[in-house]
Write a structure and sequence with these properties.
Helix content: 10-25%
Radius of gyration: 30 Å
Strand content: 25-35%
Number of helices: 18
Shape: globular
Distance between the termini: 89 Å
Number of strands: 47
Structural class: alpha+beta
């Protein structure tokens, strides 16, 4: 007799719906196995044949951290293309490389943590490079395109499962795990939630990652918005993955909970499904979850809900149906198509900011001086893969114009460092192979160690000439003649060992600190000074060598020398993405570093035909007056140099557009932690000053004429149509932009707001008819009086043009909308956070679970205004729900105080509210003004009588 084949369990049956299969698998898992699934590294369940699984594979602009891969332009550069079709194709290529890499390295995960949809509200944010735009509409359009590419087109099985980062209102690295973003309801619904919502509703998102920060006093990892908003936007099971270490922050740095069991339970109940904490070791999270279960803080059903959402993603990825998964055999990696796409994306990301007298494009026989600290660099960022191909601006210009027509000066200061004894720092020769940081791949590249196989620096009578660069704020790098940067490894010795500055803690940066008649050289990564010992140069806990900086050549002298002999000078300036503006570190200024300013001035003084190419992860402020041409591109990935040279030569007409406002001065910026884009008049939506370059700006080598604008309101949409004609003599792309502005709004509305755009390619003389169907929801605002979106009746200008300020056509439509209604005070009173205007206050958590309250910032004074409040036939009493200590003062229409309600010194905690009352007499419609004094929390104001 032959043994019978055991029946296939239902969870292995591809003919059953996923929901039934998940039910079956959940029922087969033991409670302990299910708890184990809650960590980022979910272990295998061998008795069921269920493989191990990890959430999280970085893939922001290519597969990151896992070794060589195609590197596309930074996310902000993809945003600058304003091209959804292109970005979808980039996402498609990235997801195929994820699959191909996983086939040979199972460390590569299919749950990709990309894209980042945080809005680029503030240009000093250190992670500006990771976002797409300051505008929620453009951000969601680009993010939707990327997620669709990452997901793939199969109706059932996903090629990868994208997770959006970072929920929510996250634009500061300074104190990012302890700072709270005060986000009023209008900003929440009209700005921060919107980019997430429209991307999730498009249907190609597998989950989100909460951010490190708090919003309105409550950590994002216990945000009620995950339940109240995120999970209502789609019928799909969304997997919420914590950011790395954030679950522990709830206790360790934020002190929001007393125990990790409480914190873990609160996160899980709020909607976090996968805990990224303690690296690959899940035992701590497992113990915390089990402790929460034992204490009755969680039930098995709570764990099941989270595991179900993880399993839903795994089933969609085809893990349990390898024979049916159409993506299993994907081998597309570093293909000619991907290489061409990387170049196309880099070309489309270039923005021409200024071009006086048509200096660009350059004639083919132009004699060029290519100068600047970024001229021969192809910089990567923290979320890049390792380059397979590399193209710098200098290499691109050599290739395009011929090496014999191009002269180069990097502009570094060439220096030697002399000790107090008269010896010089010396870099020994090393006969070892070059290494590229991260080429072998790493699940956590923060753990990659520096090289110790090279000899440490020594001293001798002549020393080694080093290339010194000041990247701003006094942060220096020193590079040896062979191109390797001075770095410090775990053993503390100084070596010329790094191919580039990089790492979670950069070990290649220094400061020169004046000391006596010389300088101490401080290594920033360790915080220690460099000393000279018998066995080599190293960092020391105490003391430090006093060095004299001996300058062999100033960078500006080398730049001037080549500039004066050229027809045109190309100055390539910008940032190193690992220095002064990156994850964990915000910028302090919009200005170029002083060394790069000096190089730019030297080039311009030597040659008036100076072109500035800014290659950077964020906007700068520069003086354009004496510069005939300026371009900007984000770090463009592997084809950056080729792309820039083709644009400069006119092989491609530039058509990138700025995805965020470029401000003229630091004084134009709000405080980094001011998240009120409405009250703070931030971004192009509300900024009333004159920008250096406006949102949507970008020039072309062609010219375009707009015409024949028509608009009609029909059912639930506004139908808009116009023509764009290329009146130039070259084929070029144009990005047509459609904005709206409310004519007579009753509340502050955007000065203009992007509602549609399209990038089109037109040959000389060709015209295109562009049609848009704009849903009426695009004209909504959040009405705090009713707690819902509303289209206000009245006129709306429709503005068509080439940027937010270059408007070519306009017309007005009238929308019926919904009329305003006064606040019904007797029925609902006032939720404190639903103000129309405020000064001096910030929104905090009403409880640890849900709700908002308002408190004076730093215990001072806050003023709140609530417009159009209906007291009906009359009220005789006001009550306030408050906690803490202080005074609430009420007045109407700016008149005298009608009531003062004082709360004495608290006998309990910040969430212990009490109700205070006072008699008042009021009827009819009034504006209510509240003044808060002292460290109190106001949650609600009620009226009766």
């Amino acid at each position: 007799m032959t043994a019978q084949t055991p029946p296939t369990p239902p969870f292995r049956d591809p003919h059953l719906p996923f929901a039934k299969r998940i039910d079956d698998l959940l029922a087969r898992l033991t409670p302990a196995e299910k708890v184990g699934f809650l960590h980022q590294y979910a272990p295998a369940v061998e008795r069921l044949g269920v493989a191990a699984f990890r959430t999280g594979q970085e893939a922001l602009h290519g597969v990151a951290w896992m070794g060589p891969a195609t590197v596309f332009p930074q996310a902000v550069g993809l945003g600058a293309t304003w091209n959804e079709d292109l970005v979808r194709r980039v996402g498609d290529a990235v997801s195929k490389e994820v699959r191909a890499m996983r086939a040979r390295d199972d460390r590569v995960g299919l749950n990709v943590w990309s894209p980042t949809v945080n809005l680029l509200r503030h240009p000093l944010w250190g992670r500006n490079e990771e976002g797409y735009s300051e505008d929620p509409k453009l951000t969601s359009a680009i993010a939707t395109a990327y997620t669709r590419g990452l997901r793939g087109d199969h109706p059932t099985y996903w090629r990868t499962a994208p997770v959006l980062k970072h929920w929510l209102a996250h634009n500061n690295e300074t104190g990012r795990d302890i700072s709270s973003s005060s986000v009023r309801p209008r900003v929440l619904h009209e700005y921060d939630l919107r980019a997430f919502r429209e991307t999730v509703e498009a249907g190609a998102v597998a989950g989100v990652m909460p951010a490190y920060n708090l919003v309105n006093g409550r950590p994002n990892h216990v945000s009620p918005y995950l339940r109240e908003h995120l999970r209502t936007w789609t019928d799909e099971d969304l997997l919420v993955c914590s950011d790395a270490g954030a679950p522990s922050n709830l206790v360790d740095s934020e002190h929001y909970f007393d125990t990790h069991e409480e914190a873990t339970a609160a996160s899980l109940l709020s909607g976090v499904d996968s805990f990224t904490d303690h690296g690959t070791d899940g035992s701590t999270i497992v113990a915390r979850v089990q402790g929460a279960l034992d204490q009755g803080l969680l039930t098995e059903a709570d764990v099941d809900a989270a595991v179900r959402r993880q399993l839903s993603v795994r089933f969609r990825l085809g893990e349990f149906d390898p024979a049916h998964d159409p993506h299993t055999g994907t081998e597309d990696f570093d293909t000619p198509e991907h290489q061409a796409l990387a170049q196309e994306a880099a070309e489309q990301a270039v923005v021409l900011l200024k071009n006086d007298d048509a200096l660009l494009p350059l004639a083919h026989d132009t004699r060029l001086a290519v100068v600047g600290l970024l001229a021969d660099e192809c910089k990567l960022d923290w979320y890049s893969g390792t380059l397979i191909h590399r193209s710098t601006p200098l290499e691109g210009m050599y290739e395009r114009f011929g090496a014999e027509r191009v002269e180069f000066a990097e502009g570094v200061d060439r220096v030697r460092l002399r000790t107090a004894q008269g010896a010089y720092l010396h870099v020994p020769l090393a006969d070892v192979a070059d290494e590229v940081r991260g080429a072998e791949g790493a699940l956590d590249p923060a753990l990659l160690a520096g090289r110790t196989d090279l000899p440490p620096l020594t001293t001798d009578d002549t020393g080694t000439e080093l290339a010194l660069v000041d990247w701003g704020e006094g942060v220096l790098t020193l590079r040896a003649p062979d191109g390797r940067y001075l770095s410090v490894a775990d053993d503390g010795y100084l070596r010329a060992s790094a191919d580039q500055p990089g790492g979670w803690v950069v070990q290649e940066t220094f400061r020169l600190e004046p000391h006596e008649n010389g300088h101490l050289l401080r290594h920033i990564g360790t915080g220690r000074h460099v000393s000279v010992a018998a066995d080599g140069v190293k960092v020391a806990e105490e003391g430090g060598e006093i060095f004299e900086l001996v300058i062999a050549e100033r960078g500006e002298d080398a730049v001037a020398r080549v500039a004066e002999a050229a027809d045109v000078v190309l100055v390539v300036a910008g940032n190193d993405p690992h220095i002064n503006g990156r994850e964990t570190e915000d910028r302090t200024t919009l200005h170029l570093p002083a060394q790069q300013e000096r190089l730019l001035r030297a080039a311009r003084a030597a040659n008036p035909n100076t072109v500035l190419a800014l290659v950077s992860a964020y906007p700068y402020t520069v003086d354009p007056a004496d510069l005939p041409a300026i371009l900007w591109t984000a770090h463009g990935g592997q084809a950056a140099g080729t792309a820039l040279s083709r644009v400069l030569a006119g092989d491609v007409s530039p058509a990138g557009r700025l995805p965020q406002t470029w401000y003229a001065a630091d004084s134009d910026l709000p405080d980094l932690l001011d998240y009120d884009v409405i009250g703070g008049r931030q971004t192009y939506l509300y900024f009333e000053g004159t920008p250096l370059f406006p949102f949507g700006h970008g020039l072309s080598y062609a010219s375009f004429v707009y015409g024949h604008l028509t608009a009609r309101v029909e059912l639930d949409a506004v139908h808009v149509q116009f023509t764009v004609t290329n009146t130039g003599d070259v084929t070029a792309d144009e990005v047509a932009q459609l904005y709206t502005s409310a004519v007579s709004p009753s509340v502050p509305r955007p000065l203009s707001e992007l509602i549609a755009h399209r990038r089109v390619t037109l040959e000389p003389g060709e015209a295109a008819v562009l049609s848009f169907e704009v849903p009426l929801s695009a004209f909504e605002f959040w009405d705090v009086a009713r707690g819902a979106h509303r289209v206000e009746p009245g006129g709306y200008d429709l503005l068509v043009g080439a940027s937010s300020e270059d408007i070519r056509l306009r017309t007005t439509v009238t929308l019926t909308g919904e009329p305003a209604a006064p606040r019904p005070l007797l029925q609902h009173g006032l939720n404190a956070a639903d103000f129309d205007e405020q000064s001096g206050g910030e929104i905090v958590d009403r409880t640890k679970v849900t709700g908002d309250a308002v408190t004076p910032a730093r215990g001072g004074t806050a003023e709140l205004t609530y417009r159009h409040c209906d007291f009906g036939a009359g009220v005789t009493e006001v009550t306030v729900e408050v906690a803490g200590e202080g005074v609430v003062e009420l007045s109407l229409d700016g008149g005298p105080a009608l009531a003062q309600l004082a709360l004495p010194a608290p006998a309990s905690g910040p969430y212990d509210y009490t109700t205070l009352g006072a008699g008042i007499v009021a009827e009819g419609l009034h504006d209510v003004h509240l003044k808060l004094r002292g460290p109190l929390r106001l949650a609600h104001v009620g009226f009766s009588g």
